[in-house]
């Protein structure tokens, strides 16, 4: 994780130095940014894209045959990511100039939206459970488990994804509601391996068993959840009593 953070920081630092030397003083094909933007301002904008999405220039721009920024075809609109970036820039501008100012009626401290506000260092601003749910559906459970560990190794300690116990409980609920009970139970077990003292993780496992129709295991793990999280005893005991009376 620290290696990844160091690498990203180094990329941004090198981009800042190299870009000033290799980016021209005047620009063409600017459709959202002002035509008279300075080199320093443009580099600052590009740097915010790089850090906000965890990407480099070639994410949006076409690379030439050479190496470095000097080989980039910044004028080309060939890549869809560049076209999408323009739409997103306009959206951010509208949020900051049209909608967020309306909140001044309720608060003096109005935030400004940036790329990083939603992306948080990831190319796609999706929650962990949404990413894993799509992988389960498209590539299967083993690939989804592998994806979880890859994302954990790369992003844990940052803010791209929420790796707390409740994220996998939410995923388990999504999978159970889609009748993918084995996948739900697998991720609940993974959650417990990651957080063995979490009443929330055991609650997710119990709920998955309940939705599957396995009352015995549901009651067993609801009781375990109470042991670890006594403050939820009243609520969980009502679930247990309901199961016993069915």
How are the SSEs ordered, and which strands pair?
Elements: H1 2-22, H2 39-53, E1 62-63, E2 72-73, H3 80-99, H4 115-119, H5 128-139, H6 141-155, H7 165-177, H8 181-194, H9 199-212, H10 215-228, H11 233-244
Antiparallel strand pairs: 1-2
What does this structure look like?
It is a single chain. The chain has helices at residues 2-22, 39-53, 80-99, 115-119, 128-139, 141-155, 165-177, 181-194, 199-212, 215-228, 233-244; strands at 62-63, 72-73. It is an all-alpha fold. The chain has a two-stranded antiparallel ribbon with strand order 1-2. A hairpin with an 8-residue loop joins β1 and β2. α7 (165-177) packs parallel to α9 (199-212) and α10 (215-228) packs antiparallel against α11.
Class per helix and strand makeup: mainly alpha
Give the CA-CA distance, first to last residue. 48 Å
Please work out how many helical segments DSSP would assign: 11
Tally of domains: 2
Order of helices and strands: HHEEHHHHHHHHH
Q: Which oligomeric state applies? A: single chain
Q: Which stretches of 5+ consecutive residues score pLDDT under 50?
A: 1-19
The shape, in one word, is: elongated
Number of strands: 2
Strand order of the largest sheet: 1-2
Summarize the entry for a quick read:
By secondary structure, the chain is mostly helical. The protein has 11 helices and 2 strands, in the order ααββααααααααα.
Protein traits:
2 domains, 2 strands, mainly alpha, 246 residues, disordered N terminus, two-stranded antiparallel sheet, Serine Threonine Protein Phosphatase 5, Tetratricopeptide repeat
């Amino acid at each position: 994780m620290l290696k990844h953070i160091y690498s990203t920081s180094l990329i941004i630092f090198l981009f800042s130095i190299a870009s000033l030397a290799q980016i021209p003083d005047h620009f063409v094909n600017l459709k959202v940014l002002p035509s008279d933007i300075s080199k320093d301002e443009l580099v600052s904008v590009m740097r915010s894209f790089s850090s906000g999405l965890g990407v480099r220039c070639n994410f949006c721009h076409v690379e030439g045959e050479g190496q470095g920024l000097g080989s980039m075809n910044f004028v080309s609109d060939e890549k869809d990511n560049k076209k999408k970036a323009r739409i997103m820039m306009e959206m951010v501008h509208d949020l900051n100039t049209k909608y967020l100012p309306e909140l001044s009626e309720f608060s003096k401290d109005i935030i400004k939206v940036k790329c990083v506000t939603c992306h948080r260092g990831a190319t796609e601003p999706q929650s962990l459970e949404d990413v894993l749910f799509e992988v389960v559906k498209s590539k299967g459970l083993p690939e989804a488990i592998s994806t979880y560990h890859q994302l954990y190794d790369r992003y844990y300690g940052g803010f791209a994804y929420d790796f707390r116990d409740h994220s996998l409980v939410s995923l388990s609920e999504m999978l159970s509601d889609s009748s993918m009970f084995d996948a739900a139970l697998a991720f609940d077990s993974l959650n417990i391996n990651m957080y063995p003292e979490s009443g929330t993780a055991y609650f997710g496992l119990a709920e998955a068993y309940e939705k599957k129709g396995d009352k015995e295991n549901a009651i067993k793990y609801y009781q375990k959840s109470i042991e670890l999280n006594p403050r939820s005893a009243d609520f969980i005991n009502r679930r247990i009593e309901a199961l016993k009376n069915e």
